[in-house]
Design brief:
About 25% of the residues lie in helices and about 30% in strands. The protein is α+β, with helices and mostly antiparallel strands and about 300 residues long. Strands 7, 8, 9, 10, 11, 12, 13, 14 and 15 form a 9-stranded mixed β-sheet that branches. Strands 2-1-6-5-3-4-16 form a 7-stranded antiparallel β-sheet. Bound molecules: 4'-deoxy-4'-aminopyridoxal-5'-phosphate. 4'-deoxy-4'-aminopyridoxal-5'-phosphate binds near residues 190, 193, 216 and 255.
């Protein structure tokens, strides 16, 4: 992570080294901690940083806090103001990743502690992931995705990420770039940090929200882009493992991963093992929409600097 001067802690901008919580907080002891990953895109012509789908992310944070039974929540307006203030203080004028945490910060609190609820934000420069242009090689994991009756995959609880970590590290040790987890029913769930689409016979297909996936904001954006710019309607349904090998295209989608093409699964090449035409079109439109070089859907972009006139 790039080091920036300031972070935000409980509504106040503080020097980065002062953004700390106690080792005995439930957030550390039990992973009682939820978060959001949000991106801001710099538009050089307009000298503006656009935050993509900010309200949707903040509403999902509220939902994560509700599922985890946190005692207090924060309003969307408050969280939004804290994020904008932090970015302006750090004077970020480049592509940026915003990580927003809400956590239980009761000194030596019990497993069932619901407060005090703390809130912290980091906003740091971040560009595109490695190998995004060439596409990546992935494996299907022998680790299963956590199920909604054990841990809630639908929300961004920090503790969930140990599931993806185990799967991803195994895949890396085996020589792959990334990994796909299956549900306990054996159907396709998602990656450790992104949802998955496949394309079969020209039709985009993605697992349903009852497939132990995060309720991804990018997944919905992709659906809309395909419908509006390619006249393609996404099918949401169960996907079987060997169906992955029949796909002519596949990609991860998520705020951090953006649109990340997959060119082989379990060493089966997809199509001609190049980034496919639908994935290319999607990436082109996605980039335009997040950065505001495509004028459509201005409601998806929150300008950081215009609002303050600075
Ligand atoms: N699944 C998981 C497990 C994730 O961590 C993410 C990234 N937030 C996604 C999917 C994609 O979600 P979103 O499009 O909302 O970033």
């Amino acid at each position: 992570m790039a080091v920036v001067k300031y972070m935000s802690l409980n509504g106040k901008v503080v020097p980065t080294e002062d953004a700390r919580i106690h080792i005995l907080s439930p957030a550390v002891k039990y992973g009682t901690n939820v978060f959001e990953g949000i991106r801001g895109y710099w538009n050089a012509d307009r000298k503006e940083l656009y935050i993509f789908k900010l309200t949707e992310h903040l509403q999902r944070l509220q939902y994560s806090m509700k599922v985890m039974r946190f005692g207090d929540t924060f309003t969307v307006e408050y969280l939004r103001d804290c994020i904008l203030e932090l970015i302006k203080t750090n004077e970020l004028r480049e592509d940026t990743y915003i990580r927003l945490f809400a956590y239980v910060d009761d000194f030596d609190g019990e497993m069932t502690a619901t407060g005090t609820v703390g809130m912290a934000i980091a906003a740091t420069p971040k560009g595109r992931r490695e190998k995004a242009d060439a596409g990546i090689n992935v494996a299907v994991s022998s680790w299963q995705r956590i199920s909604d009756n054990s841990m809630p995959p639908r929300i961004k609880c920090v503790a969930n990420y140990n599931n993806g970590r185990l799967a991803w590290m195994q895949a890396k040790a085996d020589g792959y770039d990334n990994v796909i987890l299956l549900t306990q029913r054996g159907t396709v769930a998602e990656g450790p940090g992104a949802c998955l689409y496949i394309v079969r016979d020209g039709v985009p297909i993605t697992s349903t929200v009852a497939s132990d996936i995060l309720e991804s904001i990018t997944r919905r954006t992709v659906m809309q882009i395909f419908a509006e710019y390619a006249n393609k309607y996404t099918v949401e349904r169960d996907i079987g493992r060997t169906e992955l090998y029949a796909a002519e295209e596949a990609f991860y989608c998520g705020t951090g991963h953006e649109i990340l093409p997959i060119v082989s699964i379990d060493r089966h090449p997809l199509g001609d093992a190049q980034v496919g035409p639908l994935t290319r079109l999607l990436w082109e439109k996605y980039q335009g929409l997040v950065r505001g070089t495509l004028a459509d859907h201005p409601e998806w972009r929150t300008p950081v600097y215009a609002e303050s006139g600075s």
